[in-house]
Amino acid sequence: MSGTLNPVNSLLREVLGLFKLRIGFMIMLTALVGLAVAPGPALSAVQVLVLALTVLVASASAGAFNQYYEHDSDHLMARTRRRAFVTGALPHTPAWLVLMAALLIGAVGAAGWFLNPVSATFVFLGAFFYAVVYTVWLKRRSWLNIVVGGMAGSFAVLAGAAAVDPVPGALAWLLAAVLFLWTPPHFWSLAIANQAEYEAAGVPMLPVVVGVPRAARIVFWSTVALATTALLPVFFGAGVIYLAGALAGGGYFVYKAWHLARAPSRKTAMGSFFASLVQLSLLLAGATLDSLTR
């Protein structure tokens, strides 16, 4: 029995890994935070479920397309060479493109039907920016790749807010701006840690283009800009709980980014990378708890 189940479990893991569900769940959470901070009538349980699933499925479609498109270059990097299309665990056939397109169309259509066309548009734009703008257009052409591609998370916040009100308020736009500013120092920290791999793969990430020391300084100042911007929602309706999360998370990220700028290394870069995850988690938790206690 176990010999029969193991190949099935292995195939299931490969398929789930293809859709980058860990990233998808994080993007889904940002959409739910956008929903939580938006003033207006409460959505039904079905609508909340539809919002969560449509953002998750659209993100999964874009994540799978990223791996499909880059299958012939992923073998150049240690962090991607075990992906299913590289190893042959999953066949690299056009049928996957049909499935990805169907998932995206289904997600956007469901968002439009159960929520509204504006929310559905933001769901689509999140997937489009990651799959096309980042993966196809910018990743191998410009160090701005992750800056523009990072808008995927911002669109998720706006999708959640627009589900309540098709014209998102200032607080939702500010949180979207925070997500936009969060992505570059988060990903550049990881890129510094893996600079040699990106260079060998010919991917013009920031540390490859400007060098590690300068990239580390840019990460620090980008983090300062992020932490400062994250305080602005307090002036547009966010309360004390949000402020506590923004101060704690932003301060910790700035501290770790400062260490990276002072002594660039893989260790300090990974410290900055993990601090970015702590910062985002505290920010999202603070925003959610704050909205629930109003």
Explain this structure:
There is one protein chain. The chain is mostly helical. The chain has 2 domains: 1-166, Tetracycline Repressor, domain 2; 169-294. Helix content is 78%, strand content 0%. Helix 12 runs antiparallel to helix 13 (240-262) and helix 13 (240-262) packs antiparallel against helix 14 (266-292). The model has no long low-confidence stretch (mean pLDDT 92).
Number of separate domains: 2
CATH class of the largest domain: Mainly Alpha
Global geometry:
globular
Mean pLDDT: 92
Helix and strand arrangement:
Blueprint: H1 2-18, H2 21-37, H3 45-69, H4 84-87, H5 95-114, H6 117-138, H7 145-149, H8 151-164, H9 170-193, H10 195-201, H11 206-210, H12 212-229, H13 240-262, H14 266-292
Summed up, what is this model?
The chain is mainly α and 294 residues long. It is 78% helix and 0% strand.
What attributes does this structure have?
Tetracycline Repressor, domain 2, 294 residues, 14 helices
